[in-house]
Amino acid sequence: MPRNHAPLFTLDGTGQVVRWSPGAERLFGRRDEEAVGRSVPELLATGPPDGRWLVGRVPGGSGEPEWGVWQAGEDMGDLDEAVLDAVFTQSAVGLHVLDRDLRAVRVNPVAVGMRGVPREEIIGRPVLEVYATEGVTGVEGMLREVLETGRPVRNALVRLRPRLDPQHEHVFSTAVHRLEDGSGQPLGVVVTAVDVTDRERAQARLRLLHDVHERIGSSLDVERTARELVEVTVPHFADSVLVALTDAVLRGRAPDLVPEEGVPLLRCAAVGGAGGFAPVTEVGTVLLPGLFGEELPKAPTLLPTGEPYGGPGGGGPVGIRLVAPLAVRGQIFGVVAFQRRDTSDPFGPDDLALADGIVARTATCLENALRFTREHIVMTALQSWSLRQEQTTQRAVEVAQRHRPGGRGGGSWFDVIPLPGARVALVVGQVQHAGLSAVATMSRLRTAVHSLTTLDLDPHELLARLHATTRRLAREQGPEPQLGEPTASCTFAVYDPVDGRLDVARAGGSLFAVVRPDGSVDLEPVGEGSLLGADGPPFASAVHLLPEGSTVCLASDVRDGDADPTTERLVAALGRPDRGPEPMADDLQRILEPDRVLLVARTRLLTPDELREWDVPLARSAVAEARAHAADLLAEWEVPVDSFDVKLVVSELVTNAVRYGAAPITLRLVRSDRTLICEVIDSAPTAPHLRHAKAVDEGGRGLHICATVAEGWGVRYADDSKTVWAEIALTPQG
Prior knowledge:
Strand 19 and strand 20 (501-507) form a beta hairpin. Helix content is 31%, strand content 27%. By secondary structure, the protein is an alpha+beta fold. The strands form 6 sheets. Strands 10, 11, 12, 13, 14 and 15 form a 6-stranded antiparallel β-sheet that branches. A 5-stranded antiparallel β-sheet has the order 6-5-9-8-7, with helices on both faces.
C-alpha cells in the first residue's frame, strides 16, 4: 500500500463503495453520487482502466474495517528518484544527507558552493570534522537529538568562516529533519542551510541603533555620555573605541565651529575595549593632532594603518580605524575612533552608514548634556553661593547648610545675613516655577533681600516690600498678566542674641520648625502666608523668645508632586537637640526631596564679655556718666579701639536721646571681633536724621560726627522703641 496517499475509493466489508475521490471520478468517469453505495462489479462492468491495483486496509469511520484501492503505476519509483534528483541538483538551498553516524552520504552543489569545501572532502567523513576548521561548533548535540527523537529543528543559526570568504563571518539558517524507513526506523538526518548573513547583519545594525537610542544620553552629563558610547559599541560594533572631546566641551563652554583645516585640541573622554584589546590612552590625556587624520573628517572615514592610539611606542592597537566626528550644526564636540581586530570583519560601507547614525545620536545627546551642564553651572553659581560664616553670625548662631541638587531646575536659595547689633537674618526662599528663568528671578529676589536688610525693617515689612518687587518682575515679563508669572515662597527670620528674640514672617509654605533645648519640637511656630507675587500682605508673622541652645530649622518649599515629610519623620529627625546642627542637618536632608535647600541654626546668647548695658537718666548730666561707663568698659575689655572715638560717639548718641527722646533710655555696647557697636534705645518714635549744620549753628552736628567717626550708623524700630546705633572699627593688631 502506498504511504501517505489517499485511496482512489474506499470499500466497506461487503464490497460496496463508501467514499469516492475526485481522482476516481476522472479515472472512471463516474460522479460521487453514481459510485457511492454500489459494488465493485457494477462499477467495473465495462472493465477497469489499465494498470496495476493495490488494495489495503484503512481505518473506518465507524470502527468497522474498510479497504482502500490505489492505482500503482510502474513509474512510481522512477518518479520518486526524479524528484529527489531535482531537489539535489536544482534547489537553491544547501543540502546535506547524513547517516546515523553523522557522516555525509550526499550533498548538493549549493552546499559545496556555499562553503567552498570540495565534495571529496565531505562524502564519507563526519560532517562535524569537515567543518570544524571553519569554526562550526556546538551543533553535534542538535543533530543527535533530532536523530534520536525525530523532532525537527528549524531556523537554527550557525556561524562560520567559509573557505571562499575567510575574512568575513557568515551566518546560515539551518533546519534538521530525520530520515526514516518504511517502518519508522531512523536512517539519518537531512540538513538544509540558507545563507542569511545579509539579513542578520541588517538586523544586528538595527538592534545596535536601537541600543544607541535607548542607552546613550541616559544622563545629562557630557563625560557619562561619552562612556555610554563606548559601552554600547564594544564589542557589538568595534573591538575598541576611543572617544575624544574638545577641551572647550569638557570645560562646559560652547563648542567651537568645525575647523576648515587641522584638528582642535582634544582630550580623551572615554576609552574601552574587549578582551584586553584597548588603547592605553588614559582619560583626560591630550591627544596628538594627527591621531584622527591630517584634518578633522567631515563624515565617518576609514584611516589606514598608522601609529598606535597612544602615539609612538604607545602600545595601543593599530590597523584600519573608522573615525567619525561628533558634530551638530557646524559645531564640533569631538571625534570617535572605532577599531577592530585583524581577525574581525573589516569595516565596510554599511559600517560607515551605521557609524554615521551612532555619532549623530551621540552628538545630539552631547549637545543636550552640554546645554544642561552650562545651565547647571549658572544655577549652581547663583543658587549655591558659599555661605560666609561671618564672626558676627557665629556669635549669634551656629549654622549648618545643605543643598542636594536634583536636576529638576533651580530657584531655591538660602542666606545667613549679619545685621547691626550682633543680630542675624535667616532666609530661605524658592521661586515656584523651575528652569533658568527661575534662577534669574531668584537671583533678583535674593539681591533685593540683601538690599532691604540694610533698612533694618521688621520681617513682615521686608516681605511686603519683597512682594512688591516680585510683582514688578511679573510686570516686566509683559504688558498683560500671564500664566506662570513669578511667585515665590520665603521665610525671613531675625534672631537677636541679646535677649533670644526671634522675629519671623512667612510667605508660602516653606518648612519652618523650632527645637528647644528640652527636646520639644514646634513644627508650626508661624502659620503659612500667601505667596510673594500672589495675594500679598498681610503675611503670617510671629515673635518668639528662645532659650539659649534652641535650634531653628528652615527648608525651601516643596515642588509640585512632592510633599513634606510626615510629622513623625520630622520629629524623629529633629527631636534630639543634644546633637549639633551638622548631624541634625544630615538627618533632615535624608527625608527631604532633592533641590530643597536647608538651614539649621543653633542659637546662643551674648555673654557679659560681649555685651554691657546701662540705664541712662533723662538729664543732661547723664551724658558725662555714659561717657565714663564707656571708658571704664574699654579698659576692662582691653578692646583695640580708639577710646576718643568711642566716647565721642557715646556722647553724641546719648545727647540726642536725652534732648529729643523719651524715657526709658538705655546705653548698650556690643563687642565683636571686627567692631564695637554702640546702641542707644529710647521710647520716642521720632527718628534722628543727618543734616549739615551751618557755620553759625550751635548744634546739628552730632550725627554728622558719628557718621564721620563710625564705620556705619542707622536706626531700627520696635513696637514701643527705637534704637540708634553706630559701629566703630577695631584697630588691626600687628
